[in-house]
Amino acid sequence: MSTQRIYAVFLRQWYLIRGNATRFVQMFIWITVDIVMWGFLSKYLSGISGSGFNLASVLLGAILLWDFLVQIMQGITMSFFEDVWSRNFLNVFASPIKISEYLTGFVLATIFRGILALAVMLTLASIIFGFSVLIYGAYIALFLLILFFTGIALGIIGVSIVLRLGPAAEWLIWPIPALLSPFVGVLYPLTILPQWMQYIGHALPPSYVFTGIRAIVDNGTLPGIELFWGIALSLVYIVIAYFILLSVYKKAIRSGLIARYSAETVN
Amino acid sequence: MHHMSPVPVLEVKELTKLYGKNTAIEDVSFTVNPNEIVGLLGPNGAGKTTTIDMILGVLEPTSGSIKIEGKDIAKKRSDALAVTNFAAVYAQLPGNLTISENLKIFGLLYSVPQLKNRIEEVIKEFDLEQFRNTRCGVLSSGEQTRVSLAKAMLNKPRLLLLDEPTASLDPSTAETIREKIKQYAAQDGGILWTSHNMHEVTDVCDRILFLSHGKILLEGNPKTLPQEHGKKDLEELFISIAREPLLRESL
Hints:
The complex is a heterodimer of chains A (267) and B (251).
Chain A lengths: L2 H17 L1 H29 L5 H31 L3 H5 L5 H31 L9 H27 L4 H4 L2 H9 L10 H8 L3 H14 L4 H32 L1 H7 L4
Chain B lengths: L9 E10 L2 E11 L4 E5 L6 H8 L7 E6 L2 E2 L4 H6 L1 E5 L10 H11 L5 H11 L15 H13 L5 E5 L7 H16 L3 E5 L3 H7 L2 E6 L2 E6 L4 H4 L5 H10 L8
Parallel strand pairs in B: 3-8, 3-9, 6-7, 7-8
Antiparallel strand pairs in B: 1-2, 1-4, 4-5, 9-10
């Protein structure tokens, strides 16, 4: 792999953010709204429930972590969409870059975006609601790792869908996190779901994170095996997603889709 | 001092591309040698862009091989593309980045040595100094063409593919660009040039290939080929072939 070519992909994303303040602000509007809205809701529910259960730690923490996953997924897909929107496919894919380098550049840009998003969310949650993820102890690092890996896998799947179906399929990508959220139990335990939904939930790595934060808040511990499954599953999904992308890319090269998408407008 | 390369800059051998039952390119073979500008001509839909896409590695041939500087693009894609570059009217650089930013990104993608100096050279060469910090999207089509050419020259490619490179340039700028490209070929580069401007092709190209219905129908020197086939100039020859490709034997 060429570090220069990976850096080129990263640099393109950096130039885009640097050159357009609205793009930068847009990145944080939704997460700010989510933190503020769910923070006040948690505060309100904590006040009326009187159960002693720390709702803010569960609800606000869960929303914060879920938004982190969404930011990671969007980091990958948005980086790719920049080439879709600017019809830059031909210039990029006719250069010596390899698909693995292209993707690694996206991941680097996404790490940068994820850290920024997380910093904004943590700051807001701390200043406005006095919430700190440190209540999850050292587990927070593992939670973030699972969500990061899952976000990367989902992002790669999103890229594959657009590469296979064309620029217009961009609109299929945005709802993916919303479609998954009921199954992973962001705001409720998996046990309240119908059995078939629980099966799907257990196959999705974020469910182990949200089960984990509830267990920590509830009794201060969680089984390590849960986290192990979360990490293992998310890594398996990255590998599967990468092979799907490779397969779609090879098909696009065989059928001429890359060249065609360069001339195709988003509609 | 020129050195003679032992292999052609581009060697296309028995290239065929099928889309289902439709044949886009059939058994096309040709070479581009160092110091040579080869014109790839043909009517719309003849297969020029399909051929270029395959040479650029963004379209896989059904059969046949493409070697750039002896490197098979099917086996050594990155190595082959590192010594290639292209400019085409349908592949402008991202409009939301400045000229300098775009050139830096593509310079890194092509691993250009001493990139900062090279960017300054191409910016100067294509008279883009005053626009270096301007976003490409707000440039005129002629300026964008010059940016695309600057990007195409950035890595000093051994093989340069130009798809109608002067289409949106005024006559004076087009002439300047033609001269630059001729100078470039004289420095050992090989160029594959497509254009519908027959006067330009006659002026610039050392050799032309006429492509029609996915096949090469004619090949030769653009200055002598029309007379060899009883036509007054290349344009007349083009029209006769484009309209009656299957009657080429009678030419």
